[in-house]
Write a structure and sequence with these properties.
The protein is of the alpha+beta class. It has helices spanning 2-18, 104-116; strands spanning 29-38, 46-54, 61-62, 65-72, 75-82, 87-88, 93-100, 121-131, 139-148. Strand 4 (65-72) and strand 5 (75-82) form a beta hairpin.
Length: 153
């Protein structure tokens, strides 16, 4: 039993000695910079979502992937994923532009609500997970706001 306790003490000391070697990591800040309807020749509009990422760390962020879901007026109409993401330099910033096409059935439900109650401004909610790779956990992003239909003031 004494031998086991001695090995356990050595292991604890080694692990505590290595703790300062682990780099301190601050999650990046993610801002929604744009959310707009894009004109298309299709009946169903497309959306463009701009994100701005600020890296407060001394190491670059090699972004692996991003998954996202967007609700308009409580209807989940957009979802997707991308791996076409920039490398964000240490203490740097970068932009991500998502081009999303809506889910047809949920969009029809939204249009049905719009017919009953027309409006030119939509409440949106963006939920996303940013994968920064390595052993770091995904960074959850949740933003809310309003998007204006084109031509509306």
């Amino acid at each position: 039993m004494l031998k086991f306790t001695r090995w356990l003490l050595i292991l604890v000391l080694l692990l505590s000695a290595c703790a300062p070697l682990r780099p301190v990591f601050e999650p990046p800040t993610v801002q929604v910079t744009s959310f707009r309807v894009v004109q298309t020749s299709d009946v169903v509009p497309s959306f463009e979502i701009g994100l701005h990422v600020i890296n407060p760390n001394r190491m670059e962020l090699n972004l692996e992937g991003l998954t996202y879901q967007v609700e308009l007026e409580g209807h989940r109409i957009l979802s997707g994923a991308t791996n076409k993401l920039p490398v964000i330099a240490a203490y740097g910033e970068g932009d991500i532009l998502l081009e999303a096409r809506p889910d047809l059935l949920n969009t029809l439900s939204l249009f049905s609500d719009l017919i009953r109650q027309p409006r030119d401004r939509f409440a949106y909610r963006l939920d996303a997970d940013l994968d920064i790779g390595g052993l770091w956990p995904n960074i959850p992003i949740s933003k809310q706001g309003n998007v204006l239909l084109r031509g509306a003031k």
